[in-house]
Specification:
The complex is a heterodimer of chains A (236) and B (652). Chain A has helices spanning 51-60, 101-104, 123-127, 129-139, 166-175, 192-211, 219-234; strands spanning 37-45, 73-82, 85-94, 113-119, 150-155, 181-183. The N and C termini of chain A lie far apart (57 Å). Chain A contains 7 helices and 6 strands, in the order βαββαβααβαβαα. Chain A is globular and about 45 Å long. Chain A has a single domain (9-235), classed as Rossmann fold (3-Layer(aba) Sandwich). Chain A has a 6-stranded mixed sheet with strand order 2-3-1-4-5-6, with helices on both faces. Helices cover 32% and strands 19% of the residues of chain A. Chain B has 652 residues and is α+β, with helices and mostly antiparallel strands. Chain B folds into 3 domains: 6-145, Roll (PH-domain like); 161-261 and 441-577, Ypt/Rab-GAP domain of gyp1p, domain 3 (Cyclin A, domain 1, Orthogonal Bundle); 310-440 and 583-638, putative rabgap domain of human tbc1 domain family member 14 like domains (Helicase, Ruva Protein, domain 3, Orthogonal Bundle). Helix content of chain B is 40%, strand content 11%. Chain B is built from 23 helices and 11 strands. In chain B, the strands form 2 sheets. Chain B has a 9-stranded antiparallel sheet. A two-stranded antiparallel sheet of chain B has the order 10-11. In chain B, β2 (30-40) and β3 form a beta hairpin. Classes of the chains: A alpha/beta (236), B alpha+beta (652). At the A-B interface, β1 and β2 of A face α5, α11, α17 and α20 of B. The complex binds guanosine-5'-triphosphate and magnesium ion. Residues 45, 47-53, 65, 67, 69-70, 95-96, 155-156, 158-159, 185-187 of chain A line the site of guanosine-5'-triphosphate (GTP).
Chain lengths: 236, 652
């Protein structure tokens, strides 16, 4: 099993080529010595593009043709090891319909990366990518959108009637911070693992970039303390 | 290549029941399998694997031979053995035993033993039924690796004890409240957390439980983050939290003992016909509804009785008027169906709204109950019927349109009605009851979530405080329950029963909210003793679908209703939610009724639509809805006969 999760990451495009050896495994307890870091991953995209199918394919290796559409919010955890670091990816999957926006967006906060998904046979879902990105950045309260790890997934690449041009989506990715793009199929497992792992790699890459500018690695704690002090001062 | 796993335990004839709650067990679909305890390179794993079997289904009663426009008999030959095996494989289970947090065993009087495993992240697996024994042996084997302790509050619940050395070094600063409480109170809390009065002090108890009883594995990320924000961020969602004043009176009104109620047999065909006069009018509607509430409707007459419950026919209609009414409804349906059917492709190109809805419906119809016989298989014609009804509903109620969740509500109705027109009108009747769930602003959903909170605050202060202090006071995890009336939580027979019970509107308004409370009550120990936080609670609640006992939940919910009805201290805002008469002049002195209860109408924070406002003239706004615990409302001086009250005074 482990062999085919492979070291050959091939995105349609993207800038992962410079990142160290990809060597991951999904088994639990692979590395008993270190605690794994929790990564919150949010899957977004129009209803029916295959978010839940992608999540299930990645986490349990299955594709269920009889699945339901999502109501509310669901999440699954998956332990991965990337470049020797252990992560627990907590993947959040929500319902795509506009109507449930106000009950979906609170879950964006605290996300470490975001997978924006469209279906290659659904032109509208491609057109809506910008809307999803905007919604995410706004509600996740992310200031620096350019340096946030987005990964773009063009799902259902197994189908015949593709309507989204490769050049259009590549152009979109170029205009959106050179986000890595993967043409995936939850149905036949094409590129699914690669896409999710790319999210971790993208995060590491951007994190390393930020860390080199800071001496203290413990940014999370600092932020938290700052927040708490704030609260105290304004709530009296 | 990894080394061969070492088999430490193996047992066959371990089943997963796909339909757990069927009243007649022969309708259940059992998937047989084997359970293993394996020592692998990566650790110790419990696994359950489906075995190849002859037949998955014994739904002999579901050979659909239908009348009318709907009918589908699946081609049994086409169902190859391999698709069945695939279907079963999706239930396969495998987890590291160090991820195990707790498990629930069957009650001793259950026919055979089953175990429900619950992981640290809240993942809850379907029950494994040991039809030929072996559950004890498996647990014995597990004890070699894990320290297992039985819950003091729920004899069926077992908790895996973690020994996390980090825990002791956890700073006491994390909990400022700690230093404020006397040692006495603290030990009392620990000894008897379930009956000691709580209130704003759940933090203390939770923390102490963390430290002293079941050390928690710390997660590197503060998981409360999301939830904290969720509470702030759902606009219009009002969750009342009590302030923590310097001097706090913690009171807990003890409700009268929850009475035992019993369920009864379904409304039988003979009884139903006896209730019709010679012209076909229904006599004693209230009595009929009482029977339905108590036991549901016999499957053979459901198709007829639902039409009355859903307003398709008037209770006072006659055979004759019903024939006319039906004719009118058929015409009306096809008139509306033609409206969208006759839109040409050219027109559609310039009709984005309709096109959008059409697309949504198409996508959802292919994802609605495809495991059910009635809808399974590729190209099943019933999917088209589902599609057409939803499209026609779009024309019938264009303002609302199609919203995800509607297909779930329609599906059981279509299965019962077996007819496109009848199913449409019954669906429209159901939508009349629940359309606020689907409105653009989601106010209906938000209102119900906050009503659950208000009810819980009074009925079970402890669980309510636990949920609040674990970022779940928004009750968001009940969202799916409410949106589609538990449709995804139960199998078809149970959904049908539950819905007909709810449609009687007995014993009270908003009975479904009390069912939410009842289910949560059954999960209380699991949530609290596993110290589940926001994400774990959400996951656990998402996962217990098909593991909820409907009859038990209905009984408990009715019991809660009786308690609220009998309790003289039930605050008026709680009474109003469930439609109990509020009589401010009687027995309840002014001081104990909700302060500022009236005059809150049109509160800007809970800007209720008119139709909701009518029924909830005093929906309390946030902050002051804590009738049970705020000092000015505490009813220390009034102690009605059947209400015990315990009062704890704490000074900061
Ligand atoms: N051919 C093909 N079909 C897919 C693929 N992924 C998903 N599907 C199908 O597309 C439909 C939608 O998939 P879901 O995973 O439910 O989509 P979703 O994005 O989660 O949708 P919502 O829950 O409504 O937001 C289902 O019928 C899937 O079987 C894929 O890679 N290829
Ligand atoms: Mg989904």
């Amino acid at each position: 099993m482990r062999g085919d999760s492979g070291c050959d990451r091939v995105g349609v495009m993207g800038n992962l080529q410079f990142i160290g050896l990809l060597n991951w495994s999904s088994e639990n307890g692979e590395d008993m010595s270190g605690k794994s870091k929790l990564l919150k991953v949010v899957l977004l995209g129009d209803g029916g593009v295959g978010k839940s199918s992608l999540m299930n394919r990645f986490v349990s290796g299955k594709f269920d043709v009889q699945s339901f559409h999502t109501i509310g919010v669901e999440f699954l955890n998956k332990d991965v090891s990337v470049d020797g670091d252990n992560y627990t990816m907590q993947i959040w999957d929500t319902a795509g319909q506009e109507r449930f926006k106000s009950l979906r967006t609170p879950f964006y906060r605290g996300a470490d990366c975001c997978l924006l998904t469209y279906a290659v046979d659904d032109i509208q879902s491609f057109k809506n990518l910008s809307m999803w990105k905007k919604e995410f950045l706004y509600f996740a309260d992310i200031q620096d959108g350019m340096n946030f790890p987005f990964v773009i997934l063009g799902n259902k690449c197994d189908v015949q009637n593709k309507v989204v041009n490769d050049s259009d989506i590549q152009e979109w990715c170029r205009l959106n911070g050179n986000a890595p793009l993967f043409l995936t199929s939850a149905k036949d497992a094409t590129n699914v693992e690669k896409a999710f792992i790319a999210a971790v790699l993208r995060l590491k890459e951007l994190e390393d970039f930020i860390e080199t500018r800071q001496t203290n690695a413990d940014t999370v704690d600092l932020k938290k303390k700052a927040k708490m002090t704030n609260n105290n001062s304004c709530c009296n | 290549m990894a080394a061969q796993p070492q088999m430490l335990f193996e047992k066959d004839s371990v089943f997963i029941h796909i339909n757990v709650n069927s009243h007649t067990s022969d309708k259940d679909a059992y998937i047989p399998g084997k359970v293993y305890l394996l020592h692998k390179e990566e650790g110790h794993f419990i696994e359950w694997k489906a075995e190849d079997v002859v037949s998955l289904d014994n739904h002999s009663d579901q050979d659909w031979a239908f009348i009318g426009s709907v009918g589908y008999k699946p081609d049994r030959e086409a169902e190859t053995g391999s698709t069945k095996i695939d279907l079963q494989k999706k239930y396969n289970i495998s987890f590291d035993i160090f991820d195990l947090k707790s498990f629930k065993r069957s009650a001793p009087n259950h026919g055979w033993a089953y175990i429900i495993f619950i992981l640290k992240d809240g993942t809850t697996y379907p029950a494994l039924h040991f039809h030929t024994g072996g559950s004890k042996a498996l647990l014995k084997e597990l004890e070699n690796f894990l320290h297992i302790k039985r819950s003091a509050n729920d004899s069926r619940l077992f908790i895996i004890q973690d020994h996390d050395p980090d825990m002791l070094s956890k700073s006491f600063d994390e909990l400022q409240l700690f230093s404020d409480s006397s040692g006495d109170l603290v030990s009392k809390f620990i000894k008897d957390p379930y009956t000691t009065t709580l209130g704003g002090f759940s933090k203390v108890t939770n923390f102490l439980r963390d430290v002293l009883m079941q050390p928690e594995v710390s997660v590197s990320r503060p998981r409360e983050e999301v939830a904290e924000l969720l509470q702030e961020d759902i606009p219009g969602m009002e969750i009342s939290h009590q302030d923590e004043p310097g001097f706090e009176v913690v009171t807990k009104t003890r409700l009268p003992k929850r009475p035992d109620v019993s369920r009864a047999t379904p409304l039988a065909s003979e009884v139903w016909s006896k209730h019709m006069d010679t012209d076909g009018r229904i006599k004693d509607v209230d009595q009929i509804k009482e029977v339905i509430f108590r036991g549901g409707i016999d499957a053979t007459i459901r198709i007829e009785v639902w039409k009355f419950l859903l307003g398709y026919y008037d209770w006072s209609s006659t055979y004759k008027s019903r024939t006319e009414e039906r004719k009118r409804k058929v015409d009306d349906y096809f008139r509306m169906k033609l409206q969208w059917k006759t839109i040409s492709l050219e027109q559609e190109k310039r009709f984005s709204l309709l096109r959008e809805r059409k697309g949504l419906i198409e996508k959802d119809v292919t994802r609605t109950d495809r495991t059910h016989k009635f809808f399974e298989g590729e190209g099943n014609p019933n999917l088209q019927v589902l599609n057409d009804i939803l499209m026609t509903y779009c024309m019938y109620n264009f303002d609302l349109g199609y919203v995800q969740g509607m297909s779930d509500l329609l599906s059981p109705i279509l299965v019962v009605m077996e007819n496109e027109v009848d199913a449409f009108w019954c669906f429209a009747g159901l939508m009349d009851r629940v359309y606020t769930n689907f409105e653009m602003d989601q106010k209906g959903m938000k209102l119900q979530l906050s009503q659950i909170h208000q009810l819980m605050q009074f009925v079970d202060t402890e669980l309510c405080s636990y949920l609040e202090s674990h970022e779940s006071g928004n009750f968001y995890f009940c969202f799916r329950w409410l949106l589609i009336l538990f449709k995804r939580e139960f199998n078809f027979p149970d959904v049908q029963r539950l819905w007909e019970v709810l449609w009687t509107e007995k014993p009270c308004k908003n009975f479904h909210l009390l069912i939410c409370l009842a289910i949560l009550d059954s999960e209380k120990s699991t949530l609290i003793e596993n110290k589940f936080g926001f994400t774990e609670i959400l996951k656990h609640i998402n996962d217990i679908c098909f593991a909820i006992n409907l009859d038990e939940s209905l009984k408990k919910a009715e019991g809660i209703f009786e308690q609220l009805k009998q309790c003289k201290k039930t605050p008026s805002h709680v009474k109003e939610i469930i439609g109990l008469q509020v009589t401010p002049t009687r027995s309840i002195p002014k001081s104990s009724s909700m302060p500022n209860t009236f005059g809150r109408e049109g509160s800007p924070r809970l800007d209720l639509p008119i139709h909701l406002r009518e029924n909830n003239t005093s929906a309390p706004s946030s902050g002051s809805g804590t009738a049970v615990t705020t000092p000015e409302d505490s009813s220390i001086e009034i102690l009605p006969e059947n209400t015990e009250q315990s009062v704890t005074l704490v000074c900061n």
